[in-house]
Design goal:
Elements: E1 11-12, H1 26-38, E2 43-44, H2 45-48, H3 59-64, E3 86-88, E4 91-92, E5 98-102, H4 124-140, E6 146-150, H5 159-169, E7 177-181, H6 184-187, H7 190-193, H8 196-205, E8 210-215, H9 225-236, E9 240-247, H10 255-267, E10 270-277, H11 291-302, E11 313-318, E12 321-328, E13 332-340, E14 349-353, E15 358-361, E16 367-369
């Protein structure tokens, strides 16, 4: 495990504060600092101490510490067409039943595989202004039955702001449930189990509407005693918890690791929901896997899972919708639209010739090589 490093507010922002800094040569330092100019580093001390610095391939380190490979700008910053689905600043309405709210640009940790690296900051006043417009939008769109409050990380919002969202949203009759997107369970669990005010707020409002916490564990090493404490606190407050993992090269790209992750999550009451194909975002190409390899990994992992832990879907979050990657024949991939932006794509089942190297689909649903 890592040594405890002094840093501002128990968070590490500079590469000079990391344990391997002295091992870097000048050329590597220059390149990593170039990475940081584009994509800053932010690591809570809790998560930093999970790194095994004696393991060159440590998965926690790869997800937290900047890498020179991030200078590869192949890909896009908006891989799922979020800009085209933005109806108001910070509000997206891509799927008929769901409104997605980018409530903040702040995260407890800047994950190196993040697909929202493009986001820029805004003030607390702007957050409140966006909230008011969001409430009005949801009230006026009765086809919407759920709201996902994310970011950034929704639990970096103040308790007062979280309570205001819940106060207004739980009063809207046509909403069935409210989701919060947060990695605090993974990277800063004491945000949850040490904050009784937050737990009281969630407990107060879950009686009116189902409150679902959507998180992202990608490796079993991220599940700790602190994770369990935060999970139990959320469950006691009446919340349910769902996990959206990302299939990442060098992190969880083997069946045993995935199976261990999903079985451990299910055992503590966090249910696997989606496994996402890594998006072709700029600066994260080194995390991408070919679809063919991903299918094999998922299928082999499922052999080690029970009914609950294998209930997830393997998904590509595409500009045209969430496309389920079902399986492959000897010659073709099998896909199906799980959620659609365009009506013509509703429940569409389609097949594509296998390409050993393709890791994504273009807008015309043709394979794109990684």
């Amino acid at each position: 495990m890592s040594k405890y490093v002094k840093s501002s507010k128990n968070t590490i922002f500079q590469i000079e504060d990391t344990e391997n800094y002295d091992q870097l040569i000048d050329e590597e330092i220059v390149k990593i600092k170039e990475v940081l100019q584009r994509h800053p580093m932010r690591i809570p001390q809790y998560y930093y101490q999970l790194i095994d610095w004696d393991n060159e391939d440590d998965p926690i380190k790869k997800m937290a510490i900047p890498q020179i490979a991030e200078l590869n700008v192949e890909g896009d910053y908006d891989t799922s067409g979020e800009a085209s689905n933005t109806k108001l600043p910070g509000l997206q309405h891509k799927y008929q039943r769901t409104v997605l709210v980018l409530s903040t640009n702040t995260c407890f940790m800047y994950c190196r595989h993040c697909f929202r690296k493009r986001m820029v900051g805004y003030s607390k006043d702007e957050i409140m202004k966006r909230m008011n417009k969001t409430i009005d939008y949801v009230k006026n769109h009765k086809e919407v039955n759920n709201v996902l409050i994310t970011g950034g990380d929704a639990f970096t919002l103040t308790n007062k702001t979280i309570e205001k969202y819940l106060y207004h949203l739980t009063d809207i009759d046509h909403l069935d449930f409210i989701r919060f997107g947060t990695r605090s369970l993974v990277v800063k669990p004491d945000r949850i189990y040490k904050d009784q005010k937050l737990l009281d707020i969630l407990n107060q409002y879950h009686i009116k509407k189902e409150i679902i916490i959507v998180t992202q564990f990608n490796h079993p090493n991220e599940i700790t005693k602190d994770t369990l404490k935060a999970t139990l606190a959320l469950k006691k407050a009446g919340c349910t918890i769902r996990n959206q993992a990302v299939l990442l090269k060098g992190i969880n790209d083997d069946p045993d690791t995935l199976a261990k992750l999903f079985n451990k999550l299910t055992s503590i009451g966090i249910h696997p929901y989606y496994v996402f194909q890594c998006r072709p975002v700029k600066g994260a190409s080194h995390f991408r896997l070919p679809i063919k390899q991903g299918i094999d990994i998922i299928n082999q992992a499922r052999l080690q899972l029970n009914g609950l832990s294998k209930a997830f879907r393997y998904i590509m979050s595409h500009p045209r919708g969430k496309i389920e990657i079902i399986d492959k024949t000897d010659k073709q991939f099998i896909f199906k639209f799980h959620q659609h932006k365009y009506d013509d794509d509703s429940n569409l089942l389609f097949m594509k010739d296998i390409d050993d190297h393709s890791s994504w689909l273009d807008l015309d649903l043709n394979p794109i090589k990684s």
